[in-house]
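Running this now, will post back.
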Amino acid sequence: MTLSNHPVIVSLTPVFLLIALGYLAGRLHWIREAAVKDLSNLVFLLLIPALLFRTMSAVHVQTLDLRPVAAYFPAALTLLGVSIAWRGFNRTSVVMALGGVFSNMVMIGITLVELAYGKAGLVTLLTLVSVHALILLTVGSVVLELAVAREARAGGERAPHVLQTAWSAFKGALIHPIPLPILSGLLFAQTGWALPAVVDKPLQLLGNAFGPLSLVMVGVTLASTSLGGHLRQALWITASKNLALPLLVGLSAWASGITGLPLTVMVVAAALPMGANVFLFAQRYEVAQELTTTSMGLSTVAALLTLSLVMLLMSWVG
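Update: finished.
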């Protein structure tokens, strides 16, 4: 087998080619900045739910392997806590720490994992995706609100109760276009019914459109991302996201006795570049917005090398 037809190269090449085409379209202004938000809404509110619901509607709970969830998130939360402790407890450090643990499992991960590892790998990934935002966004929201409350108390202001913040964050993460269709699809699968063709076919067509459009949108976003400022801090965040997290997740999975395809998908998911949700936190809490943008772009560009190396390594390990 030559390198050019190695399964890892074959699956990675179309992913990064589509991102590159999106970058070109963005630089040439074929897709204007005003249209990016509408296209993102199309992807997140229509295409992703269709793909996730249809995929999970044929999965029975008794066949699900939940060990990856039990191994992945302790590793991610440990790295999150260490990163915050290392930089000091404030809003900026929390956003930076989130950048180092929040993977782009949807926009890049779903297409990549399906190309590389098929439907079986995709089910493992979606098991992680179903609680990824729920866990990390809820924890991130609570920790950020604690940092805000600390700053408010230091300034003599009154802060909202942490339980109120936690409940609000939990609801926002659960009623979301990613966990909701996954859970709905799983519930439907337990009925034993099959989707009627008149429903299944449109869902299939919408799901097929998700992969290429989402990757092109990643490229379009990169085209308007400056990698100039905050480069040193962005390098630390990128090293955490692209290298430290997959290493910790791999060790956690190995310690839990996870092997084969689930182990590979877990490590690859951890090695994916930084997800865009971190920027939403930076915007909401008005901290480190330029740094977050730089880190997201750098992490995605660096993934050309780091993700390729991780996938090649896992192909030998597996």
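DSSP finds twelve helices and no strands in the chain. More later if anyone needs it.
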